[in-house]
Amino acid sequence: MSEIQLENVTCGYPNQEVLHQVSLAVEPGKVLVLLGPNGSGKTTLLRALFQLIAVQQGTILVEGQDVQRLSRREMAQKLALAPQLEMPQWPMTIEETVQLGRSAHRGWVQPFSGEDAEHVETALVQTGLTELRAKKITEISGGEWRRTLIARALVQQTKVLCLDEPTTGLDLKYQVEVLSLIRDLAHERELTVLLTIHDLNLASCFADQIVLLAGGEIAALGTAAEVLTEARLSEVYQTRVKVVPHPEYQTPLVVPLL
């Protein structure tokens, strides 16, 4: 059974339809990457999944349940999100921010338990934040903030993990470490992972499946080899590219032609 299923979903903003009749199923244990040019609907799809914008037509199911029928707490127990645009507002520490991810399980007034602390510690280790845990989030770099948001999502211990541009602001070392962690968690814990990204080559290396969006519709769905073809990418991104085998992994390597 698919953890996430979109059935003919149309949604967008006032006077602007962004996604048009999109149907998609995301299986457990898989990393599905959303690709596409700016404005193609990647972030809009995630926002619709989390009820941050209204679905005008169609249905979104999570674990077989219509998301529009779920309470906020039920949503937080099923879906975790590391957003792209959230900015640090309060002078909390990194550790305190990550702890907020446990509120879906203990509420806002229940005391912090030993189990909560274990999950927080694990997430801090996984995201390389243990030595930074006492730093104020108003004083950290963009990359450190990005890792904090990912750690906060991990401690929710949901079956579905969604990440909007998780590698933004990260140097190459942490890009690879974060995507490796996400892929390993998906495969080992049977998580359903849905993420947006702009880097075609990172997507090629780490995705189990890729959805290529163009103009609010699915232009292609499949493995990296099936989706990342020269003709399709040149058409969708309106620029010439060359696709060659990666020298190490034999996955598609996309090279823009100047």
Automatic annotation (TrEMBL):
Keyword Nucleotide-binding in annotation: yes
Top-level taxonomic group: Bacteria
Molecular function terms, GO-annotated: ATP binding; ATP hydrolysis activity
ABC transporter domain boundaries: 4-240
InterPro entries per the UniProt record, alphabetical: AAA+_ATPase, ABC_transporter-like_ATP-bd, P-loop_NTPase
Alphabetically ordered keywords of this record: ATP-binding, Nucleotide-binding, Transport
Entries under PANTHER family matching the protein: ABC TRANSPORTER ATP-BINDING PROTEIN, HEMIN IMPORT ATP-BINDING PROTEIN HMUV
Name of this chain's protein: Putative siderophore transport system ATP-binding protein YusV
Organism: Gimesia chilikensis
